[in-house]
């Protein structure tokens, strides 16, 4: 059998200091967003939705850096699915409810080429490095009100625990986009296994009702099941294909 040739590289970047706040959610809320051909993925029979903030650094499209669009914040809400590839078996992936970025051009490219759900809002971040503790925060401004996702964390990252919750959350290497009721786009995201910074405390100010709707707000009104920060790495995002 001939090896399967990967799709061409669309984007390269570094994703750094990814804060992940993870909530349990009723699968009935997610079901209308599940792309055709995929099914909800679970860890210990729990369905997760994650509020994620991180930095894009040294971003390049087709190897070309775009002036004023190399470094920027992203804040997204995502959940987890899996797809049974007829040749490769089960693939674990993510689906995005909404992705916030500060530049309209980024929104246009992502929505045009991948059919994603990007929106443009003012964003900001704050990183404070100290020997005993890191402070990392990502903010976004909606309707003239700043909201944020911030953590105080151990400065020394540790490897993922095999079979643990953080491994489940971080190691989904495919993206799936619901284009139509009977059409899905799949794209691959490549990166090494990330190390994790243990979080000492967190602060989340998010108007989930206005951002994502009442069903998501209900889930996110509870305390998250976990909050951690992934160290991040260089990433490759490949071109999408229909499945």
Quick overview:
The chain has 243 residues and is mainly β. It is built from five helices and 16 strands.
Structure write-up:
With 243 residues, the chain is mostly beta strands. It has a single domain (9-242), classed as Beta Barrel (Acetoacetate decarboxylase-like). The protein has five helices and 16 strands. Strands 1-3-5-6-11-12-15 form a seven-stranded mixed beta barrel. A four-stranded antiparallel β-sheet has the order 8-9-10-14, with no helix packed on it. A hairpin with a 3-residue loop joins strand 5 and strand 6 (89-101). Pfam families: DUF2071. This is DUF2071 domain-containing protein. InterPro entries: DUF2071.
**CATH superfamily membership:** Acetoacetate decarboxylase-like
Domains counted in the coordinates: how many? 1
Helix % is: 10-25%
CATH fold annotation: Acetoacetate decarboxylase-like
Q: Between the first and last Cα atoms, what is the distance in angstroms? A: 20 Å
Number of separate strands = 16
- Total helical elements: 5
Shape: globular
CATH architecture descriptor = Beta Barrel
Strand content of the residues, in percent? over 45%
Encode the helix/strand succession as letters. EHEEEEEHEEEEHEEEEHHEE
The spatial strand order of the largest sheet comes to: 1-3-5-6-11-12-15
Query: What kind of assembly state do the chains in view correspond to?
Result: single chain
Residue-averaged pLDDT, rounded? 94
Characterize the biggest β-sheet.
Answer: 7 strands, mixed, barrel
Unreliable stretches (pLDDT < 50, length at least 5) are: none
CATH level 1 name: Mainly Beta
Radius of gyration: 17 Å
Label the structural class.
mainly beta
């Amino acid at each position: 059998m001939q090896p399967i040739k990967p799709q061409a590289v669309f984007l390269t970047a570094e994703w750094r200091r990814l804060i992940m706040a993870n909530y349990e959610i009723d699968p009935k809320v997610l079901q209308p967003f599940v792309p055709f051909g995929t099914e909800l993925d679970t860890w210990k029979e729990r369905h997760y939705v994650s509020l994620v903030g991180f930095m894009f650094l040294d971003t390049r499209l087709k190897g070309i850096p775009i002036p004023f669009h190399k470094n920027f914040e992203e804040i997204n809400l995502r959940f987890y699915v899996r797809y049974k590839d007829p040749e490769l078996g089960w693939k674990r992936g993510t689906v995005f409810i909404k992705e916030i970025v500060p530049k309209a051009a980024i929104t246009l490219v992502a929505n045009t080429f991948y059919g994603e759900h990007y929106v443009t809002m003012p964003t900001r971040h704050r990183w404070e490095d100290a020997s005993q503790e890191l402070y990392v925060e990502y903010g976004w401004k909606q309707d003239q009100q700043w909201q944020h996702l911030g953590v105080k964390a151990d400065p020394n990252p540790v490897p993922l625990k095999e079979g643990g919750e953080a491994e489940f959350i971080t190691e989904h290497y495919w993206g799936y986009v619901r284009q139509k009721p009977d059409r899905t786009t799949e794209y691959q995201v490549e990166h090494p296994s990330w190390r994790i910074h243990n979080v000492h405390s967190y602060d989340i100010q998010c108007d989930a009702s206005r951002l994502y709707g009442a069903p998501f707000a209900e889930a996110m009104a509870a305390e998250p099941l976990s909050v951690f920060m992934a160290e991040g790495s260089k990433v490759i995002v490949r071109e999408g294909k229909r499945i």
